[in-house]
């Protein structure tokens, strides 16, 4: 089950569980759509994977399975993934 992390790892913007402006990779690294597209150019800085929009958990299920409150923030900030 997805954690539904509460913030962008780059800019620390709040990302509520109902937001449709959240991008995640296969490891569930979580970024706002602006950082994912403009700063990171579509590639996760942690694993190099691609992003997809995070699904929204239905309200009834959110009550039973709440979103995470653990915030993850890259202390060094974010930079685009460099091509190998």
TrEMBL record:
Which branch of life, at top level? Bacteria
Query: What name appears for this protein in its UniProt entry?
Result: DUF1272 domain-containing protein
Which species is listed as the source? Metarhizobium album
């Amino acid at each position: 089950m997805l954690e539904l992390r509460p913030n962008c790892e780059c800019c620390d913007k709040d990302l509520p569980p109902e937001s449709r402006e959240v991008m995640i990779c296969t490891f569930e690294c979580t970024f706002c759509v602006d950082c994912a597209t403009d700063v990171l150019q579509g590639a996760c800085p942690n694993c190099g994977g691609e992003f997809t929009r995070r699904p929204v958990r239905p309200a009834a299920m959110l009550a039973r399975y709440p979103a995470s409150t653990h915030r993850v923030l890259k202390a060094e900030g974010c930079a685009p993934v460099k091509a190998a």
